[in-house]
Amino acid sequence: MPIGRNAHAGTLIIRAFFDQFGKTISEATICCLLVHKVEQDYQDVIDSIVYPASEKLEIIQLVEESHLSARLTLAKLGIPWTTFYRWYDRYLQRGEAGLQDQSPKSKHVWNRVPDEVKRRVVDFALRETELSPRELA
């Protein structure tokens, strides 16, 4: 769908919203609201990007070498500063290896009943059919 048609639909939605309250809205304000919505959608996409280690290193080097402040440089790159400093701390602690994507934590659950115990409980329950679930517990 062309951008113009999307913008037109957005304009109609915004006008309808304000009309229900008996208010009017200028074209400039509508444009600002639409731009803000596009910026929010863009930031959602930026936040979900997974950067490979080589790009993280390049971003770190750009920030270190920039004549601008780190926050301003990151803002221009569209990188949240909290994300950058998490990368930077790992980089300082473990070097380039710290920038590799980390696998999720162990899937071991601390209170999982071991398979052997489950099997014994089921066997017991099958032998003692006259017991209620509460009595089996």
Description:
This protein is mainly alpha-helical and 137 residues long. It is built from 7 helices and no strands. It has helices at 3-19, 27-47, 53-65, 70-77, 81-94, 115-127, 133-136. Helix 3 (53-65) packs across helix 5 (81-94). The radius of gyration is 28 Å and the shape is flat. The protein starts with a helix and ends with a helix.
- The total of beta strands comes to 0
The rounded Rg comes to 28 Å
Distance between the termini: 60 Å
Poorly predicted residue ranges: none
Shape: flat
In short:
The protein has helices at 3-19, 27-47, 53-65, 70-77, 81-94, 115-127, 133-136.
List keywords for this structure.
single chain, flat, mainly alpha, 7 helices, 66% helix, 137 residues
Which helices and strands, and how do they pair?
Blueprint: H1 3-19, H2 27-47, H3 53-65, H4 70-77, H5 81-94, H6 115-127, H7 133-136
